[in-house]
Design goal:
Blueprint: H1 2-6, H2 14-17, H3 19-32, H4 40-47, H5 51-63, E1 67-70, E2 75-78, H6 80-92, H7 94-110, E3 113-120, E4 123-130, E5 145-147, H8 152-158, H9 163-169, H10 187-200, E6 203-206, E7 213-221, E8 227-236, H11 245-263
Antiparallel strand pairs: 1-2, 3-4, 3-8, 4-5, 6-7, 7-8
Helix pairs in contact: 3-5, 4-5, 7-11
Length: 269
C-alpha cells in the first residue's frame, strides 16, 4: 500500500509543498519570455518573490547551467542546460505525438483532411497529415515545406508573431515566393492579410496552394502565448461554403485549444 501511495502524484496543494520547485520553474519560465538577460531585481518584482529567494534560486540554476550570470551587466539569462532541454523537446517530437490523435479526431468529426504545422523561418513544415476518406491526396505530406505566407496554417502562425520578427522574416520583395502568381507579394500586402487574420481569429487560403482546394487554420499557442504550431483543415472549395468557414474555424479552435493545454502538460477539465 505504501508503495502505491508513493507512486501517486501529489494533488491539490502541491505548490505549497514544494515552493522552491515552484519558484525555480517560474524563474525559468519568466526568463524564457524575455528578449534578453534581465536583472535579478526585475525578476523578483515581476514574479512577486523575495529578492533573497530569487538570488538563491538563481545561484543554484547558474551552478547547474540552466542560467548564465553576466556579472558586468548584473543580469541573468537562460543557460546552455536550458537550451539542451529545448533540443530534447524537439528530438522527442511531442507536438507530433500529442497532436496526431487530436488531428485524427478532428478529421473523423469533419470528414475533411487536416494537418499540424510548425513555422521554420519563412516556411511551414508539416508534422502531421491526416487524410479524410474519399478526399484527394494533397501536397502537404509529412515533412513537406511550403512558403508560410501562401498557406492558411502559415498565415495563422505569422499573424501571431511580433511585428519586429515579421519584418525580419520579410524585409523586402525578394522574400516573397510566388505560386501561380497568387498570394501577397509585398510587406504591405502581407500586413493587410495578417490584420484580417487577427480580426477574424483564423486564417484562410483559397486555391493558392492547389487549385480548387481551400484551407482554414488556427494557431496553437504555448504557455507564453507564442505560436507553437497551427492546425488546418483542407477541403474541396465547393464542399464547404465560405459563409461556413467561421463555424469551421470554431471547431478547429477547440482542437487547437486542447493541444495548447496538452503541450503545457494540462488536460481539459
Amino acid at each position: 500500500m505504501a508503495q502505491a501511495e508513493e507512486s501517486t502524484p501529489p494533488q491539490g496543494s502541491a505548490r505549497s509543498k514544494v515552493p522552491a520547485a515552484e519558484g525555480t520553474l517560474r524563474i525559468l519560465s519568466h526568463l524564457a519570455t524575455q528578449r534578453g538577460p534581465v536583472p535579478a531585481s526585475a525578476i523578483a518584482t515581476a514574479l512577486g518573490l523575495p529578492r533573497s529567494t530569487v538570488y538563491q534560486l538563481l545561484a543554484v540554476l547558474a551552478e547547474r547551467g540552466f542560467v548564465v550570470h553576466l556579472p558586468e551587466e548584473r543580469r541573468y539569462g537562460l543557460g546552455l542546460a536550458a537550451f539542451e532541454l529545448s533540443t530534447g523537446f524537439s528530438r522527442q517530437e511531442p507536438l507530433s505525438h500529442l497532436g496526431r490523435p487530436l488531428v485524427a479526431q478532428l478529421v473523423d468529426r469533419l470528414g475533411e483532411s487536416a494537418h499540424l504545422v510548425v513555422l521554420h523561418g519563412r516556411d511551414v513544415i508539416y508534422l502531421v497529415e491526416e487524410r479524410a476518406p474519399r478526399r484527394p491526396s494533397l501536397v502537404t505530406d509529412v515533412g513537406v515545406r511550403l512558403p508560410g505566407h501562401l498557406t492558411a496554417s502559415g498565415r495563422a502562425l505569422l499573424a501571431a508573431l511580433p511585428a519586429a520578427q515579421l519584418r525580419a522574416l520579410y524585409p523586402n520583395a525578394a522574400a516573397f515566393q510566388e505560386r501561380d502568381g497568387r498570394g501577397p507579394r509585398t510587406s504591405t500586402e502581407l500586413r493587410r492579410l495578417l490584420d484580417q487574420v487577427r480580426r477574424q481569429g483564423y486564417a484562410q487560403e483559397d486555391g493558392e496552394i492547389t487549385a480548387g482546394m481551400a484551407s482554414v487554420a488556427v494557431a496553437v499557442r504555448d504557455h507564453a502565448g507564442w505560436p507553437a504550431a497551427s492546425i488546418a483543415v483542407t477541403f474541396p472549395r465547393d464542399a464547404i461554403a465560405e459563409s461556413e468557414w467561421p463555424a469551421l474555424a470554431e471547431r478547429i479552435s477547440g482542437t487547437a485549444a486542447e493541444l495548447s493545454r496538452r503541450i503545457r502538460g494540462r488536460q481539459a477539465v
